[in-house]
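Recap from last week: sequence in, structure out.
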Amino acid sequence: MELTDYVREVSKADFGKPFRHQASWNPRLQTTGGRFFPKDGHLDFNPKVYQELGLDVFRKIVRHELCHYHLYYANKGFHHRDQTFKDLLAAVDGLRYTPPLRTVKIRYTYQCQGCYQIYRRQRAIDTTRLVCGHCKGKLNLKNQSKG
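Predicted structure tokens:
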């Protein structure tokens, strides 16, 4: 099934209104599940959301973008901050935020000698230049994991 056809099906089933524009995959999206473009009415979706989180989560993201779409064309508040958007999103069981797509690997753990604050990082830091953000104490590498 093509993406635009799927979005039209969700729009008809969950909103009772037609989706008259195009929907497309945008692999450049990193942290967002989709985008609505008021200028020409098309929707972009992140293919990684569908691949990693499945059809159930993806359908909720489609509903989220369709809330923007239908409210915009009804001349109602379609922004995240608008109460009309929040009410419609809750009514159709859409997602407010996209769940995290990838987990961050913690490879380096540093500890301050002064206040014992723990710092977890993906990349190594230069302990000769950087100090604790709380007490300006010296940082020591506590442990390093592989991978």
